[in-house]
Amino acid sequence: MNSLYSAECVTAVKETARRNLVIAVFGTEVCLTMSALQVLADGYFVCAVEDTSGGMSAGPHRAGLRRIAQAGACR
Q1: C-alpha span between 29 and 31 (Å, rounded)
Q2: Of 7, 33, 64, 69, whose CB count within 10 A is highest?
Q3: CA separation (Å) from 46 to 17, 22, 25, 43?
Q4: 11-46, pLDDT tens digit by residue?
Q5: Read out DSSP for 6-43?
Q6: Is there a contact between 71 and 36 (Cβ–Cβ < 8 Å)?
Q7: What does residue 73 show for φ and ψ, rounded to 5 degrees?
Q8: Residue 74 above 80 pLDDT?
């Protein structure tokens, strides 16, 4: 649900020493939204790849994208 629950993922992100992340996942409304909100809270800049992420339907997909945009992510 949130890739940052994985210690390996967090370590890999930190080892890059970069502050800009591009995120694309299968489930926009949960996986993308939760991961993006977490890294935004941790001080990263996030760009979500809208056309390579998907949701169960168009409504939740759009809602997830709006939520992360409201939090400061680009898309």
Answers
A1: 6
A2: 33
A3: 14, 6, 13, 9
A4: 999 999 999 999 988 888 888 999 999 999 999 999
A5: SHHHHHHHHHHT-SEEEE--SBIIIIIHHHHHHHHHTT
A6: yes
A7: -80, 150
A8: yes
